[in-house]
C-alpha cells in the first residue's frame, strides 16, 4: 500500500498504463512538521490507498510538479477538496476548469509549508520540472528529471525506455535534450539543486536512489553543463539554502 522511505516520507507505487506497456510510477507522500500531508505527483488512488494516506494526517496540499504529471490531479482534488492545489506554470493549458496555484521558481510555497524547498529546472519550458528538498530527511524528490528503472512488466516498455536512454540505469531520458531551450539556465538550476544537502533521491519512475545519490544525479545531468562541469556551491544549512536559491 504505502511504503516508508524515510522519516515522514512514504511512497505509493503503481504502474501507469501506456500504449506500449506499463511504466513503474510513484507518488511521494510527505508529512509536514505540523502534521499536514503533501501529496507529490498524484496517481490514481483507490479507496484503500486514500485511507492509508488519511491515516497519516490531514491532506493539506496536492502538487503536480511538472507539465506531464497531472492526469490524476483532478481526481485527487475530488477526494481531498480542502487541500491546496499547486502545479507547474503552463499546466493551465492542460487543466481547463481546474484552478491551482503556480509553483514558485525557488524557495518555499506557503501552501506546502517550509518543509519542502523547491527549485524549477529552467530552460525546458515544455516540462517545467520542479524539484523538491525535504531537508529533515535529506531527501530530494524529482519527477522526470531522473529515471532509475531496472524492472518492467512488458518488453515494449523496456524497448521504449532503452530508446530514450533510460533503461536499467540511473539516467535522464533523451527527451530532455530535444526539449531543451536554454541550456545555460538549465545548468544554473541543476547546480543550485546539487548544492542542496541530500543523500537520497526519490524518483517518480524506478527505484529510490540511496547512498551515492548526489553523484549519480550529477553524472546523469552532466551533459547540461557541456564543457564546463556542473559544480555546486559549497553546501550550506539546508533550510537556509532552500530559501535562498
UniProtKB/TrEMBL annotation:
**Pfam families xrefs:** DUF4336
Xref: SUPFAM superfamilies? Metallo-hydrolase/oxidoreductase
Listed InterPro entries: DUF4336 (IPR025638), RibonucZ/Hydroxyglut_hydro (IPR036866)
Protein name per Swiss-Prot or TrEMBL:
DUF4336 domain-containing protein
Q: What is the lineage of its organism?
A: Bacteria, Pseudomonadati, Myxococcota, Polyangia, Polyangiales
Amino acid at each position: 500500500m504505502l511504503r516508508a522511505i524515510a522519516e515522514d516520507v512514504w511512497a505509493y507505487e503503481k504502474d501507469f498504463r501506456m500504449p506500449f506497456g506499463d511504466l513503474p510510477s510513484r507518488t511521494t507522500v510527505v508529512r509536514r512538521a505540523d502534521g499536514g500531508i503533501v501529496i507529490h505527483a498524484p496517481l490514481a488512488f483507490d479507496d484503500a490507498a486514500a485511507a492509508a494516506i488519511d491515516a497519516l494526517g490531514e491532506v493539506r496540499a496536492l502538487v503536480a510538479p511538472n507539465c506531464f504529471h497531472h492526469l490524476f490531479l483532478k481526481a485527487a482534488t475530488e477526494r481531498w477538496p480542502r487541500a491546496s492545489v499547486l502545479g507547474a506554470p503552463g499546466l493551465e493549458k492542460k487543466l481547463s476548469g481546474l484552478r491551482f496555484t503556480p509553483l514558485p521558481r525557488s524557495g518555499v510555497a506557503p501552501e506546502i509549508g517550509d518543509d519542502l524547498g523547491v527549485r524549477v529546472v529552467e530552460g525546458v519550458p515544455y516540462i517545467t520540472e520542479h524539484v523538491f528538498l525535504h531537508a529533515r530527511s535529506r531527501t530530494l524528490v524529482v519527477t522526470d528529471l531522473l529515471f532509475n528503472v531496472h524492472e518492467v512488466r512488458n518488453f515494449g516498455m523496456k524497448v521504449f525506455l532503452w530508446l530514450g536512454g533510460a533503461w536499467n540505469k540511473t539516467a535522464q531520458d533523451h527527451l530532455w535534450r530535444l526539449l531543451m531551450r536554454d541550456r545555460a539556465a538549465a545548468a544554473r538550476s541543476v547546480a543550485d539543486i546539487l548544492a542542496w544537502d541530500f543523500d537520497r533521491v526519490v524518483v517518480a519512475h524506478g527505484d529510490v536512489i540511496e547512498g551515492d545519490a548526489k553523484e549519480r544525479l550529477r553524472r546523469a545531468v552532466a551533459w547540461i553543463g557541456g564543457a564546463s562541469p556542473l559544480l555546486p556551491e559549497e553546501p550550506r544549512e539546508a533550510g537556509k539554502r532552500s530559501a535562498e536559491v
